[in-house]
Design a protein that fits this description.
The complex is a heterodimer of chains A (about 110) and B (about 110). Chain A contains no helices and eleven strands. With about 110 residues, chain A is mostly beta strands. The chains are: A mainly beta (about 110), B mainly beta (about 110).
Chain lengths: ~110, ~110
Amino acid sequence: EPEVTQTPSHQVTQMGQEVILRCVPISNHLYFYWYRQILGQKVEFLVSFYNNEISEKSEIFDDQFSVERPDGSNFTLKIRSTKLEDSAMYFCASRKSGTSNEQYFGPGTRLTVT
Amino acid sequence: DAKTTQPTSMDCAEGRAANLPCNHSTISGNEYVYWYRQIHSQGPQYIIHGLKNNETNEMASLIITEDRKSSTLILPHATLRDTAVYYCIAPSDSWGKLQFGAGTQVVVTP
């Protein structure tokens, strides 16, 4: 069964450093998402991406964040200058069509900013 | 998104049916009800969704009241692996943004 994959599973970085989190969505899916979950808190929407552009973003997704689909398979989230408060699990998700909101989530990347 | 209200937690005995309620009294006529779950620290997992008819798949059944103001997710034979936080979501966003609340923590006990 196809699944969303994410790398790395755990990333440790120093404050102020840039990080890139990588996702490979399910191959025939058209809509892509990033969510994050700070330890002990709710899952929060960050950004949605469709047709090679951002379709919606949350207030969390400020100028420090960017997303890209550099080729036909990868979907990346970049944080330019990490802060301590960026420490969280980051989940990528994808869905096939616009008629159903069945989203399939990856296992997540745990980002620790020290 | 329509506001949804779920109990904070519930316990269920292994092998028994787990019935998870959700209130969504402000849901509009074209908003579906989606259920997801999150097993500890894993990515959320889609379970089922419906509009007004009852739905069943290999994981669960979804019963939606006729007035659509509430629904119940049924796990017919709960196993220990069903221990998770279950989320009821009624997204209205055309781009598919999911707004997760606190959900219901379900603990299945032997």
